[in-house]
Amino acid sequence: MATFTRGFGGRRADRDDTRIPPGQTLVRDWPVLSAGATPEIEPESWTFSIRTENGLHTWTWDEVHALGVEDITVDIHCVTHWTKLDMPWRGVPLDRLFEDVDTSLDFCMVHSTGGYTTNVPLDELLDGKAWIAFEADGEPLEPEHGGPARLLVPHLYFWKSAKWVSGIVMQADDEPGFWENAGYNLHGDPWKEERYW
Ligand SMILES: Nc1nc2c(c(=O)[nH]1)N[C@H]1C(S)=C(S)[C@@H](COP(=O)(O)O)O[C@H]1N2
Ligand SMILES: [Mo]
């Protein structure tokens, strides 16, 4: 399952080869990668906030769901070289939240309960590219995978998909978050292998 043949003009060892970014290996399981302890968060007490130069907008669990839940199937790519294809997820696109937000700032610092942060340019969270996700593989997100709610930004390496997501602070500049400060790439496009900097 994890062996591919590349560059010898032969058959593809895996029919999904073209969907696996350079340097990545296909996995069937779902590894857990957390920098700290798993927090216990009840949906009833979970909120999501966006802070801009104009103030703070906060949504409850029910309010976020009321914006419109979508089912999507996406591939995810971790910088530690695993890729998982065709994962079913359920969540609300960030587009729905930003419809209610007035900002001229271009960069987001995504915050999680527990202190994890990661930076993403706003335009990479809009146009159907990112979700606040509540379910994966048809089940509510396990706490170790970020439950009850995490960010899902499948077109970037998975460290951008903040678990236990609590909000976004809009910023004028693209400043590094937790892993970016520790040497991970500011942007993190798996197809360009933007792993470190
Ligand atoms: N809050 C928080 N979010 C996080 C992390 C973390 O340590 N804390 N790790 C990141 C990294 S490096 C990866 S690869 C993915 C792992 O998600 P998973 O454990 O569900 O596979 O979550 C990302 N989001
Ligand atoms: Mo990661």
What can you tell me about this protein's structure?
The chain is globular. With 197 residues, it is mainly β. It is 8% helix and 32% strand. The chain has one domain (47-192): Oxidoreductase, molybdopterin-binding domain (Sulfite Oxidase, Chain A, domain 2). Bound molecules: the ligand Nc1nc2c(c(=O)[nH]1)N[C@H]1C(S)=C(S)[C@@H](COP(=O)(O)O)O[C@H]1N2 and molybdenum atom (MO).
Briefly say what this structure is.
With 197 residues, the protein is mainly β.
Characteristic key phrases:
five-stranded mixed beta sheet, mainly beta, binds molybdenum atom, 32% strand, 11 strands, 197 residues, six-stranded mixed beta sheet, disordered N terminus, OxRdtase_Mopterin-bd_sf, Sulfite Oxidase, Chain A, domain 2, Molybdopterin-dependent oxidoreductase, OxRdtase_Mopterin-bd_dom, binds the ligand Nc1nc2c(c(=O)[nH]1)N[C@H]1C(S)=C(S)[C@@H](COP(=O)(O)O)O[C@H]1N2, 8% helix
